[in-house]
Amino acid sequence: xxxxxxxxxxxxxxxxxxxxxxxxxxxxxxxxxxxxxxxxxxxxxxxxxxxxxxxxxxxxxxxxxxxxxxxxxxxxxxxxxxxxxxxxxxxxxxxxxxxxxxxxxxxxxxxxxxxxxxxxxxxxxxxxxxxxxxxxxx
Length: 138
Known about the structure:
Blueprint: H1 3-9, H2 11-35, H3 50-66, H4 70-89, H5 96-99, H6 102-117, H7 124-130
C-alpha cells in the first residue's frame, strides 16, 4: 500500500478535524466581536457591518464546529468573509498581506472547501443519522 492510499484512508477524519478547528476559530471571532472577550472590545448591537458579521461568525461557527447544517453555514460564512475582504480590506491594497485581510481570505476559502466537501468525520449530523450505537449483541 502506497503513501497516497494511506493518506486517502484518513481524508474524512482530517476533513472533520479541519472543520472543527475552523469552526472553533470562527466562533471565537464572533464571541470576541459580540461579547468583548479575548482582548477585544464588544461591538455595539446593530453596528453595521461588524455586529452582523459577529452574529454570522458565532452562529455559523458553532454549526460548522458541531457539523450541523455544515454546507449551508459554510456557504454563508464564506460569503460573509468575501464581503468583509472586498469591502473592509481590499481597498487598502491588492494582496491580503498588504491590506490586513489574511484572516477573511483564509476563512473564505476554507469555508468554500467545506461547502463542496461536506463535514467529514466526527460530525453531529453523521452521529444522528447513524442512530444509537449498537451494543454489540444481536
